[in-house]
Amino acid sequence: MSEGLARRLGTGDAVVVGLSAMIGAGVFAAFAPAAAAAGPWLLPALALAAVVAYCNATSSARLAALYPESGGTYVYGRRRLGPLWGYLAGWGFTVGKTASCAAMALTFGAYVAPAFARPLAVGAVVGVTVLNVYGVRRSTAAARVMVAFVLAVLAAVIATGLLATPAPTAGTPTAGTPTAGTPTAGTATAALGQTRHAVPGASAGMPGVSRGAVDDLGEGGPYPIPGLREHLPSVPAFVTVAEETGPSDTGLWGVLQGAGLLFFAFAGYARIATLGEEVRDPARAIPRAIGIALGITLVVYTLVAVAALRVLGWPLLAVSAAPLDDVVTAAGFGWLRPVVTAGAAVAALGALLALVLGVSRTVLAMARERDLPHALSAVHPARREPRRAELAVGVAVVALLLVADLRGAIGFSSFGVLVYYAIANAAALTLTREEGAPPRVVPVAGVVLCLVLAATLPWASVVGGLAVFAVGALVWAVVHRRRPARP
Known about the structure:
Blueprint: H1 11-22, H2 26-29, H3 31-38, H4 42-66, H5 73-80, H6 83-112, H7 117-133, H8 136-163, H9 185-195, H10 211-217, H11 238-245, H12 252-265, H13 270-274, H14 282-318, H15 323-330, H16 337-368, H17 387-403, H18 409-429, H19 441-455, H20 459-482
């Protein structure tokens, strides 16, 4: 093994990294496609996502305490299940999350200036990479500022949503006629109830997530919501996944789809585990950090969901291109829209920072075992930072931004992260009581639920994900045919 990394991070730093990854751009966009899938069962879908997250986080925390090294599930799978399983976890994480880095950078650019999204995305990746190269403490300091700002914005959204007049049941007319240009949440919801049967692909009880539905509620429609249509170019890729999946009948399948979309939005606690080699007292700090970060995230997501449902109702939420913007507008606080958009941009940047940190540490771990070029395992002798791995990830993300079509990045990344956590749960199943094994039901439920949620993904995401893992397995077979596997 190459020289170890410096342990500079405390529990609070690890919590910040986790929050930066989990409370990213997803919270500003994921509730719309989740509501389109789950309908009135959005909160149960969120609860199911929380159960999956708890199982995965518990398994990851127990393993991280036992193996406080860089690499996360790549290390756990390798040590507990065998080199191939560790390699597949690392391969899926590295490929999928590198693409996610590019998609998140584009999301940042789209929120700031849609016409210049790609150049801004490249600049964001370069800036984040430079920040990481000069030390993980600087990265966590920047993440701390971004997380504080995003939480303040979300607190404002939650407060406006809880103070506003609740939306009536979808399809129920509201008293009085709204003045043109000044809609209320109730009239907009009622309008959706009147027009949803005209939405292409909508079922009797479920509006489709389509541009047509949004156009009906935009500036040109009979019940306009100011500014709704202008956000269409900047809708993050979560909506793409929902559109590919198509509208579903509200029921168990819809709840599973909604849970899957919400799970992807806050499944960033793995970033804490990948930094295991840089956290002081990791056996104690990492499990605590994962638990604290996940607990805060679940509380925030629940409050945001309640606020959005209270103001918009699930039918209008389901077709919103910018859900939290529309919450503050419908609640009568339209002047907060620029602040919410700024919060989304900062959240995307924070998620990008955490992603690059996590991917570079997994690259480092794989390079140490020669599953990636060994040169990437070099650690700076003075700073004890994996600069080559960080620079390699930055270069790869910029290259993707310049040459690749990233519309399918979230789809494959979603499949890859479910496989990643399924391997983590399977590894946790092999722990003994002396090694800190969680109750057996936790990893068993984690494996089963990860596979179930994977089945709800769009078929293109599943096929693409299987293809990428097949390529990874082929690469593994070719490389290890030429040299014996390292223990």
